[in-house]
Amino acid sequence: MSDPMSNKPHAAAIEGWHTLGEQPHLIGTRCCGCGTYFFPKQTHYCKNPDCDSSEFEEVELSRTGTVWSYTNACYKPPAPFVAAEPFEPYTIAAVQLEKEQMTVLGQVVEGVSTADLKVGMPMELVLETLHETEDDIKVTWKWKPVA
Amino acid sequence: MSNEIAILGAGMHPWGKWGHNFVEYGVAAAREALADAGVPWRDVRFVSGGATVRCGYPGYVAGATFAQALGWQGAEVNTSYAACASGSQALAAARNKILAGECEVALVVGADTTPKGFLAPAGGYRPEDPDWVRFYLGITNPTYFALYARRRMDLYGDTQADFAKVKVKNAAAGSKNPRARYKKCFTEEDVAASAMVADPLRLMDICATSDGGAALIVSSVDYAKRIGKGDAPRIAAISTVTPSFASGVVEMPDIATDSAAAEGIDAQSFRAALPIKAYEEAGIGPEDVDVAEVYDLSTALELDWIEDLRLCERGDAAKLLRAGDTSIGGRIPVNPSGGLACFGEAVPAQALAQVCELTWQLRGQSGERQVQGAKVGITANQGLFGHGSSVIIKR
Ligand SMILES: [Zn+2]
């Protein structure tokens, strides 16, 4: 958890995987040949067996979807995960995006437990702290129940 | 049937955390299988090994490593690596050799030693490596099994008590298996008292990793008949199909599924696809199966497999479990060996261990674990990077 008094700048934990700002989107690609979406971005070959296109356009993925399933992490994962001390369990969700017909994993925002979730529940994408470094606060995408 | 081969011998080094060289386990399993078959080592003309990627170069060339350890005698060798399905792919290579008429008897063997300490991805900033990405974001192996388990609860009404029942059932079976690593019986209360790892799965819902070795001696049906073993169990099918795009189930180590947005593309389940080819090849259906050995990396995953093998309708596996149908003595016993719950996973040996168990079951040699009158058995497993297998044996 980040110190709310910290003046450090925010930076994407993984650069180029999502937009920054109030209404963030994951950034993927779409095959120009068949319309298949890719996240993370795919730019050299299409994985659709019926498509041999090598042209892709960068696209923002839908920032809302529905819960496919969910769990939590009760134990501290190994590095490269950077854990807060003491370790705080966090919730994880797999969210289905309707238009893209794909499911994307991510942590769920702080304060939401597995007891608050159900398969099919609407979720939206937000940014939240993953960990802090000496220089900045690393933020990443997380899923949040739609109010 | 022209595409069948005979299983003449089966052997296993007991599973455990022994800390020895993997070659020792493979050789022990191979010698037991040779003795069980009554076949002299020099008659084996093809040695097919399941590779281990944890034991250096000898593990990458496991077929040759085992052949040398047993004493070079000029047999041809093969090594297969296919994650959890390595043993099945090594078995398929032996079957092809036999059915092509290039050899009569083959040894198939897999063995592994668990690594010391935790296998974490390399450090630095490496977003092109899916394993680095998911660990950085806090997504570990149990995450995936827990997602599948929780989905069952919300969709089909399975409970944590049901998952505990799987553990209790498998522990009871494994307690009667001298080759199992864990031979202790547990109660549902024991499972409920173990630490939560990834909600809804507790420590006792998730399998460990183990040392172990398993081996089979397989031959042409002609050869089996010549040595008076024409009634030996036969391998009727080996499916090692890859997934079909688009995979609709998020799989380790990925952060997302395939997209099924393109025209003519539907979301697919890899697990459900694996047995389809096996049933077709064997010319039988799920209704013909007497016993199954499935890959219970978690307790809840055993229930998924029961449905993937079409031993019941989708969503009904917990009903079978509660009725005792999947216990030894039930209508369709699943994991009479005790499963991964009692063995722990020894990757290149595990698919062969499943076939070893079915071989003893079909011969009626399983003692207190015996599934009475078993004539047809099926295995199923799935591992990383599109590897998986399903083998049918019958007698
Ligand atoms: Zn395409």
Top keywords for this entry?
heterodimer, A: 147 residues, mainly beta, five-stranded mixed barrel, three-stranded antiparallel β-sheet, 9 strands, B: 395 residues, alpha/beta, Peroxisomal Thiolase, Chain A, domain 1, two-stranded antiparallel sheet, 14 helices, 11 strands, 36% helix, 17% strand, globular, binds zinc ion
Account of the 3D structure:
The complex is a heterodimer of chains A (147) and B (395). Chain A has a domain at 63-145. Chain A is mostly beta strands. In chain A, the strands form two sheets. A five-stranded mixed β-barrel of chain A has the order 5-6-7-9-8. Chain A has a three-stranded antiparallel β-sheet with strand order 3-2-4, with no helix packed on it. Chain A contains no helices and nine strands. In chain A, 0% of the residues lie in helices and 41% in strands. In chain A, a hairpin with a 4-residue loop joins strand 6 (90-97) and strand 7. With 395 residues, chain B is an alpha/beta fold. Chain B has a domain at 5-115 and 210-226: Peroxisomal Thiolase, Chain A, domain 1. In chain B, 36% of the residues lie in helices and 17% in strands. Chain B contains 14 helices and eleven strands. Chain B has a nine-stranded mixed β-sheet with strand order 3-2-4-7-1-8-11-10-9, with helices on both faces. A two-stranded antiparallel sheet of chain B has the order 5-6. In chain B, helix 4 (86-99) packs across helix 14 (347-363). Classes of the chains: A mainly beta (147), B alpha/beta (395). The interface between A and B is large, with 48 and 50 residues. The complex binds zinc ion (ZN).
